[in-house]
Amino acid sequence: MIAALVEYGLGRKFPAAAGRVAVLGATVTFGIAIALVKAVYGGARYTALGHQLLADTLAGFVALIISFVGWIATIYAYSYLRRQVADGRVAVERMPVFFAWCMVFISTMTAATVNNNLIMMYVLVEATTLASAVLVSYYWKPESLEAGYKYLLLCSVGITIGLLGCVVIYSSAVPLVGGHNAMLISEIAKVAGQLPRMAILMASVLVIIGFGSKAGLVPFHAWLPDTYSQAPVPVTALLSGVASKVAIYAVARIVTIFFPGHSAIGTFAIILGAISMLVGIIVAYQQTDLRRMLAYSSVSQMGYIILAFGIGSYLGFYGAIFHLLTHGISKAMMFLCCGALAISFGTTDMRQLGTKKHSRLLAVCFFIGALAIGGMPPLSGFWSKFAIYVAAGQAHLWWPLGICLLTSLLTLAVMIRAGAMIFLQHSPHGDSHGSAIADAGRGCPPVMMTVIVLTTLVVLVTGSNIGSVNHLIDFSAKALLQQIVGG
Amino acid sequence: MISYAIMYISLLMIVTSLLAMEWRSLPEAVYTYQVQSVLIALVFALYAYLLHNSALYYWSGTALVSKGIIVPWLLRRYVLRVHSKETPPMLTILPSMVLGIAAALLGFAWAFKHHADLVLLPELAGEPYRMNSAVAAAVLILGFYALLTRRDAFKIVIGLCLLENGVHMGLISLAPSIPETALIGVVTDVVVSVGMLLYIVTGIYRSAGSLDTSHIAQLRG
């Protein structure tokens, strides 16, 4: 937030230097998140402001993912926006506005992860929508404005439904824990089994629908493809990589505490997840624009995460959190690749991109991300999805397991098809139709390429079965289980 | 006496919702919304007096400032920048009114009948909470109805404001003990979201020359 204020203040006088304070702010935030994870590693738990804030391993882990994606997106945006200014797409005076709102966006997301207050969860998730709406409409052309309008309207309505659910939960808990404690998720968890059954069922459905609309779950996903395709690429990386995860995190925090006595809630989440994953990937297959394809793929992958949370077992939580990490970083990286293509060739149409000559490095990074999301071993997506498959099998949820497997195959097909359309149509000596040497484009700035490569390395590392990553996910899953039992 | 006053004012809220939704002149629709918001603030103050709950005076003040002053000011400020006449909706006035009234009555009747099932605390059973939750349901449904049936983007924003009013009213019957700080956070979000939506809607009008959502829908969704 401090970086946002300084960025905006300084940017009005020195617009050409916009982004430097933002990069510094994002770096400091990432550093703080690393320190937080170190503090909560092993299952430690800290509270502040009268338990209004709570940091356990899960909160720290999600905050780490958010701050990492925020960091790389900000560095990427520093170069991306300057190229856009050079191309005349963006006025230099508007750069500080972008970075200031970007910092606000990242700060609201990280605040949501350590929040323990039920009503403030609504406030903060809505705040992420408000901060990002300005960024979605940033180009201020008709399509961007339409996307921003849809995004803000649909998400605001959705989150309001979520607020109703939060208020019902609060009201149910007041007689048992008192007015002040009834606002705190950790205190509600202690009496979750004693709350009125029908009220909790209704409230949980409202929360899943409300916050799920922000996450892009079907059928509340109408805003998502337009928003992801019209927003500047760094913003899309943030939206797809982490903003949707914040909404799912809110659902997980609030609703899972009622799982032990209300299996119907988990079933509802599983059904919603299954529908989202199938519908998302089927529609993704029909897209010719890379950004819209990735957007629908995000809808599908969010289905995996909510389904895994809905299973309600340790392995389900493990798979959900692991997939949250996998998708968060891989999808952000793929959108950054998309931005590099757009910068180089001025289009994200996969058919047109197929006639161009591409950087081999970019192609490798893209395919690694695509295969990771598709669930190809030994990449991280395979391990996270495998955990979800095993969790579904252990819970005897055979039809959701079948849908997961089918969706995984379809995802792999869609991703490989996209990569092949873009990178494998063109031969080294000309395009595939034998005409003159294909356009090699204007090239991608080195800073952007470096960020893409760095993120790809992180994708590879997270899948390489490193002990610390596994332990972090393990402790995060246990933190959620601990919350459920009221610890 | 106070209970009767609350009852009649609550019923007025359904009337103001219908008027705000159907009035084709945008400035008048904004004015009607403002009247509704002031009535909400008044109802909160009356509840505070009736139930000896001083926290509800804060609710009243918050509602008056945010929804009675700031949001209508924003709406009026932006409506001056666009056309003052609403883009005709899908339905003409008469069928729209009939459908709107039917939807509001359905919501009202359902909430009124099932109040005992919905009530979470024994002290929230019976009047005046029963009437309040029924009216809140009606206002909420009218807000949704406006969102779904209006073509004018500005009027859709007013529909969102009506929906938020319905939710705000419903909080009395669901959770009258919510701390003021939480309420201020909620209301701040509402004010900022409305302000941003209006800013974007004005941008749409300037670039597309129209607020007709069926014409500006260039993206496939």
Describe the structure concisely.
Chain A has 487 residues and is mainly α. Chain A has 19 helices and 2 strands. Chain A has one domain (2-484).
Structural notes for this entry:
The complex is a heterodimer of chains A (487) and B (221). By secondary structure, chain A is an all-alpha fold. Chain A has one domain (2-484). Chain A has 19 helices and 2 strands. Chain A has helices at residues 2-13, 20-40, 57-86, 95-113, 118-136, 142-181, 185-190, 197-215, 224-230, 233-255, 263-285, 290-311, 314-345, 350-353, 360-374, 380-394, 398-423, 446-462, 467-484; strands spanning 46-48, 53-55. In chain A, strand 1 and strand 2 (53-55) form a beta hairpin. In chain A, helix 11 packs antiparallel against helix 12 (290-311). The longest helix of chain A has 40 residues, at 142-181. The radius of gyration of chain A is 22 Å and the shape is globular. Mean pLDDT of chain A is 89; it is low at 429-437. By secondary structure, chain B is mostly helical. Chain B has one domain (2-208). Helix content of chain B is 76%, strand content 0%. Chain B has 8 helices and no strands. In chain B, helix 1 (2-22) runs antiparallel to helix 2, helix 2 runs antiparallel to helix 3 and helix 3 (55-79) runs parallel beside helix 8. The longest helix of chain B is centred in the C-terminal third of the chain and has 29 residues, at 180-208. Chain B is globular and about 55 Å long. The mean pLDDT of chain B is 85. The chains are: A mainly alpha (487), B mainly alpha (221). Chain A binds chain B through residues 117, 119-120, 122-123, 126-127, 129-130, 133-134, 137, 140-143, 145-150, 152-153, 156-157, 160, 163-164, 167-168, 170-172, 174-175, 179-180, 183, 196, 198-199, 222-223, 225-226, 229-230, and chain B through 117, 120-121, 147, 153, 156-157, 160, 163-164, 167, 170-171, 174-175, 177-179, 182, 185-186, 188-189, 192-193, 196-197, 200-201, 203-204, 207-208, 216-221.
